[in-house]
Amino acid sequence: MQAHALEHEHGHGAPSGLMRWVTTTNHKDIGTLYLWFAAVMFLLAGSMAMAIRAELFQPGLQLVSPDFFNQLTTLHGLIMVFGVIMPAMTGFANWQVPLMIGAPDMAFPRMNNWSFWILPAAAILLVISLFLPGGAAAAGWTLYPPLFIQGGISYDLTIFAIHILGASSIMGSLNIITTILNMRAPGMTLMKMPLFVWTWLITAFLLIAVMPVLAGAVTMLLTDRNFDTHFFNAAGGGDPVLFQHVFWFFGHPEVYILILPAFGIVSQIIPTFARKPLFGYASMVYATASIAILSFLVWAHHMFTVGMPAVGQLYFMYATMLIAVPTGVKVFNWVATMWRGSLTFETPMLFAIAFVALFTIGGFTGLVLAMAPVDIQLHDTYYVVAHFHYVLVSGALFAIYAGVYYWLPKWTGHMYNETLGKWHFWLSMISFNVLFFPQHFLGLAGMPRRIPDYAVQFTEFNMISSIGGFVFGASQILMLIVVLQCIRGGRKAEAKPWEGAQGLEWTVPSPAPYHTFETPPVVK
Amino acid sequence: MSVRRVCQAVFWSFFGVRKGRDLESDAAHIKPVHIVLAGMLGAVIFVVSLIVLVSWITH
Predict the structure, then answer these.
(1) Is A477 on the interface with B (CB under 8 A)?
(2) Does the beta-carbon distance from A325 to B23 stay under 8 Å?
(3) Average pLDDT, stretch A3-8?
């Protein structure tokens, strides 16, 4: 009996060897796996972006064929959304949610393992599609028919990859919701939860609501391609515009799936380095819920040019503008948190402040695009490319960087190299703007997106943009160096390395032991 | 818990602003299921009122 009890004693460290990672059900291990998966995919999709920017450095066709260029833009988009931002955010959720609510692990540890380990299968499907006859899918990440119905075998692989990614997301979301609702420490009421946990709770509901919609849309594409149905084929009585409606009913909430956890990360970091509680916690929770509901009601602003009636255009225009109100409340609250705070500017705070400033620019260009008459001019131009990169790179990606620098001492037990971190920040901050700001001008001047060649009047801004792109790409290697250095050694991190940090995760030692909160803490 | 209190909470959540004191009182008095139902109702009212507005403008 005693031997049996010892066998199940959980005070051990991490098992060793490869099988640790394959069979693990530990939330910290799985969080690490998600984050490394995202990092590898980031290098892959980032390399594609470098090839895109190299081709666009000057007019004419230099490096890649037009068809391969389209494959690069398609895979870059798909991988960055489904293989980088989403897995990275899920990695944060795996590591931090149990630590922040005082739970010993996720609610369904074995499903947690499965939801991670099907991801590499999806990634492999996408990557090998590059080497199949006809190359990878080249119809854009939005998968629009009729183009998507006409492609070769790799298009079927892409559909299958999306099914797998969706299944992974749904399992991950069920796990996160169950963990948050059932496994909070005594005294940790919903309204005492850290904002990161709140944003992930709402994001998980969004994921469960929209991933089946995407699965339905791509399944209809699959049957149109292979089983002679005509959901989206006008010749057979179908309607390609129907696909756009179904896709964007998934696609717009997806934007918030990518950005709400980023809001959560930034809402943890700014109070820490401002040494003040978050201004308007209640407003933040309510604004997040509001954004989630409104995100379902605005989808057709992505398709103003399909020829919808004026009533439809006006409805989607007004609804889209109104969603800016709760988002604006959040930006106001972050600024108010910093107001008269005792600020210091460590790397996580620098990335968080850059997030607030640059995400706001992306938000404002979103408002410009929300105006139907303006959007009809700017639709499918580089203005749109600039807009969503301000939201997703300086928004979601910068928040991921901020979160990695913020929690790295907790994960590794070592402080990262602050000097290198600051170099990474400033190089990223400057090169990001050199890369994407000129793209607003290109779009306003009429340069279409998804083209490998362009008219000569666009040359200068494209050159500037490409130079920014190469510097931005190279700067990200610094991040990899910082993380690897931090894992290998460095100054020992205290349990609470940041003076102003609050929350349960800072009550456990650094690095966080393999098992934490086996006896739940009591929150007062 | 009154219907008025739930509606008030949902109205403020659409705006995205709520006083901390009111939030604590909401958390103590309102069940999450009521908030979800009222939120969906709020979304329907939001959509219908926008459609009425744009129909009025275009006619």
Answers:
(1) no
(2) no
(3) 45
Would you say the C-alpha torsion A204, A208, A209, A214 has a positive or negative sign?
A: positive
What pairs with residue A381 in β-bridges? A448
* Residues 6+ positions from A514 with CB-CB distance below 8 Å: A12, A13, A14, A26, A28
Tell if the pTM clears 0.80, that is, is over it.
Answer: yes
Note whether B18 contacts A289, CB cutoff 8 Å. no
Distances (CA, A) of A310 to A303, A313, A315, A452: 13, 5, 8, 34
Q: Are A291 and A205 in contact (CB under 8 A)?
A: no
Is residue A93 a contact partner of residue A112, using CB atoms and an 8 Å limit? no
3-state secondary structure of A103: coil
Q: Which of A293, A317, A334 to mutate to test the interface with B (most CBs of B within 10 A)?
A: A293
* Structure-block tokens of residue A258: 């990518």
Amino acid (one-letter) located at A60 = G
A291, amino acid identity: I
Task: Kindly state whether B34 is in contact with chain A, defined as any CB-CB distance less than 8 angstroms.
Answer: no
Q: What single DSSP character describes residue A393? A: I
Active site residue A76: yes
pLDDT at A80 over 90: yes
Q: At what angle do helices A347-370 and A382-391 cross, to 10 degrees?
A: 140
Residues of A in contact with B20 (CB under 8 A): 280-282
Give the count of alpha carbons within 13 A of A163, CB side only.
14
B16 interaction partners in chain A (CB closer than 8 Å): 283, 286-287, 290-291, 325-330
Task: Please state, in angstroms and rounded to a whole number, the distance separating the CA atoms of residues A171 and A23.
Answer: 17
Is the preceding omega at residue A146 within 30 degrees of 0, hence cis?
A: yes
| Residue A387: closest CA among A368, A371, A401 | A368
- Does the beta-carbon distance from A311 to B46 stay under 8 Å? no
Q: Is A499 a catalytic residue?
A: no
CB pair distance less than 8 Å for B58 and A285? no
pLDDT band at A2 (very low <50, low <70, confident <90, very high): very low
Residue A414 designated active-site: no
Quick one: DSSP state of residue A82? I
Biggest distance spanned by C-alpha atoms of chain B: 47
The CA distances from residue B14 to A270, A290, A324, in Å, are: 24, 5, 11
Quote the CA–CA distance of A179 and A164 in Å, as a whole number. 23
Q: Which of A191, A293, A328 sits opposite B43 (nearest CB)?
A: A293
Which among B5, B42, B2, B39 is positioned nearest to B22, based on CA atoms?
B5
**CB of A284 within 8 A of CB of A330?**
yes
Closest CA to A145 of A65, A81, A235: A235
Please say if A254 is a catalytic residue: yes
Average pLDDT over residues A293-301: 92
End-to-end CA distance of chain A: 37
Distance, CA of A140 to CA of A131 (rounded, Å): 18
| Phi/psi at A146 (5° precision) | -80, -15
Residues 6+ apart with CB under 8 A from B19: A282
3-class SS of residue A492? strand
Task: Judge whether A168 counts as a catalytic residue.
Answer: yes
Q: How far is CA A195 from CA A199, A281, B16, in A?
A: 6, 8, 15
- What's residue A5's pLDDT? 44
